[in-house]
Amino acid sequence: MENAASAPEPVCTAADAETLLRPLLAHAEREAVFVLYLDSHGVVLGIDAFPGGTDTADLPLREVMHAALRLDARRLVLARNHSSGDPFPSQGDLETTRTLALVAQRLGIRLVDHLIFAAGQCTSLKGEGLL
Q: Which end of the chain is more exposed for a tag (fewer CB within 10 A), N or C?
């Protein structure tokens, strides 16, 4: 987990999260999932990266929630890249988003967005009305 010193500005919008995460995901050749752990004001408490393969990356829900509780995070932003070049969510992305949002909500944590980077574009599931 990276520490919050690498992200001094609060993450208040999808654009803020995109700006922070684009250098990490926009041109990755392998799939990866990143989680931003935020306090209630959007201050980044930590960032986790979960590398994947050439066409898939799994989100270890248990690890994510353990880190969120340890950091006392109140908000999460999920982000991933699609090496296929398609910036729109797959059925698996939607299921992962719903599961994470539900589990986080039960623990008093809000999933504020899920961003998908591909082919120089970024899709916000919240912006698309899918979160």
A: N
